[in-house]
Design goal:
mainly alpha; globular; single chain
């Protein structure tokens, strides 16, 4: 068996309580947003629904938009894992395409709650802008992993370009009649360009 390092220490009582409070706030906010729309729900209403003060709410979430996206660190971890843990012989653009289709777009006939969440974000300008900013914050980390997996220097501009356009593609495809097809075509272009650059190295 491969040694994976020391096991993660279990959270203490205080940390568990903080995590539970944060989750309760996020759950209450999402429920209200899905029921009434993001713009029609106030911070105090969310705090009351979660049985916390507004001060406590803002300790966990610095902005109203952040209430909708409470798994930023987990999203980055999944993004980087898509590259690091891709199947043998799968290209990096192909792995990122799978990630985009799975986590950035609502699948046809998929989970109703996830579809409702995607619709909420797509129909709320403030949330669309926040989400895209959140994804683009991961560009540097993704570019570094692409460089590591490709044996290229950390500052290689092609890695930064692939990371940026891979994260931008789902937003650009949102307005198309078939966003999933649009994302697939965008990644076909990235695949072709990445392959050409690889052959030139």
């Amino acid at each position: 068996m491969t040694d994976t390092g020391p096991a993660t220490a279990p959270m203490g009582r205080r940390e568990r309580k903080k995590a539970a409070t944060r989750q309760a706030i996020a759950d209450a906010a999402l429920l209200l947003f899905l029921e009434r729309g993001y713009d029609d729900v106030g911070i105090r209403e969310i705090a009351d629904a979660a049985d916390v003060s507004t001060t406590t709410l803002f300790k966990h979430f610095p902005a109203k938009e952040a209430l909708v996206f409470d798994e930023d660190a987990d999203q980055e971890a999944r993004l980087l894992a898509a590259v690091r843990e891709r199947v043998k012989d799968q290209s990096i653009p192909a792995a990122l395409r799978e990630h985009a289709l799975r986590y950035r777009l609502a699948p046809a006939g998929g989970d109703a709650r996830f579809t409702a969440f995607v619709d909420l974000v797509n129909n709320t300008p403030a949330l669309r802008d926040y989400l895209q900013g959140m994804w683009l914050r991961h560009t540097a980390a993704l570019a570094q992993v692409i460089a590591e997996e490709s044996g290229l220097p950390e500052a290689d501009p092609t890695c930064a370009a692939l990371a940026h356009f891979a994260l931008e593609a789902p937003r650009a495809a949102r307005s198309h009649d078939d966003p999933r097809q649009a994302v697939t075509r965008a990644f076909d272009l990235l695949e072709s360009g990445w392959h050409t650059l690889a052959c030139d190295r």
